[in-house]
Design goal:
The strands form 2 sheets. The chain has a 4-stranded parallel sheet, with helices on both faces. It has a single domain (22-228), classed as Uracil-DNA Glycosylase, subunit E. By secondary structure, the protein is an alpha/beta fold. The chain is built from 11 helices and 7 strands. Helix content is 46%, strand content 16%.
Length: 232
Amino acid sequence: MSTFADRIIDFNKNLQYTGTLPTDISIMNPFRDNDFAFDVSSRFYRKYYNDEYPRHLILGINPGRFGSGMTGVSFTDPKRMINQCHIPYNGPITHEPSSEYVYDMINAFGGISEFYQQFYIHSVCPLGFTITGPKGKEINYNYYDMPALSKAVYPFIIENLQKQIDIGFETDVCFCFGTGKNEAFLKKLNEEKRFFKKIVALEHPRFIMQYKSKTKQDYIDKYLKAFSEVII
């Protein structure tokens, strides 16, 4: 019988976008773009998800270059993968403030094993996007930043949300990282598809670290209170 780890790894292995994108937008697929993300993420899932415990989904926006774009694990940058998860990583070492916040929250929850036994973090759109910035460097881009992009990837988002739900996650409550456009998009989509009975939105970790870092503990407390409603 397959475990959550087997099914998540299989989902990642087969994750591919084959549609068209607006001009100047590029897809970011860590499982195909480099030779280390799939390996390290598979190690991660075999360590923390090699079971059949009931879990709830937490959905961010889409992968970023310095977090899951490197490791293949949402909100887990290379620093956290090595120092917190204790999993070998051979790629470039990058720092993602959102990952720092999430692991501070996870440790406040009770630890990595305890948290991942209850929750699975991914994104509304499972692959990321980049655009060339004014100085010629690639920068992160969100699926909702351009109406044409949202429209282009909408079928892809629906298809892969269903695939992730089919992995076996709970559907009574889904948590959403982002209380603005990500929440609005996911709730509208859910009204159409009825994936979840309820969506609970929390401020995005990036927003907290960028604008509310002095009150970070207040947001951690808010997260923990929300998660406590579904803890078994």
